[in-house]
Amino acid sequence: MMKVRTILAAFAILCAGSGLMAQDQISPSRKQAIDSLALEKVRDLSKYISIVGNKDTPWSEANRVIERTLELFADGAMMGVSTLNSQDINYYGIREYLERLMALNYDKVNIQWYNIQYISDLERQPDGRYVGVITIYQRFEGTTKEGLRYVDVTKKDVTVYVERKTTQISGRIIGFWDVLLGDIRVTETKPGN
Length: 193
Fold this sequence. Notes:
Blueprint: H1 2-23, H2 28-53, H3 59-70, E1 78-83, E2 86-93, H4 94-102, E3 108-124, E4 130-143, E5 149-169, E6 172-191
Antiparallel strand pairs: 1-2, 3-4, 4-5, 5-6
């Protein structure tokens, strides 16, 4: 009798565990919604970078946009920065990157992101999160009053994290998938036109 109870208890735990695992799997329709949300967050980031980099943006507005930008990222995320003048790629925390962008020594800055697309599908990690990569191309143009102009095009890979979270609404625990951006790595920098 004790052996039967032990087997039944083990079976119940296994079933409960597999039910829990099923909740942590992303259905095809949910994956499509998550992919759309991730791409939307990358487009928002593109818009925010353009606003912060624009020399016509008031300081207070740029700082407000920086705070909004930080909400898109996982803790500790880094942004890669490159230049045609050096083969080195420097990585900065997101706040530091944005503050440096605001302080660039140009009178006019124009930053555009284009060809935003997934290059790697979401893959489940041992910790339960899913990770994917979105690639973008960034065209940077800086101009001085004297007419000096610097233009480059950089290909960057944006790490995307998708993880299961919970929140409490009206006393009920609700599960949802959250999308955060991670490190943005430079993969190529070339002259722009």
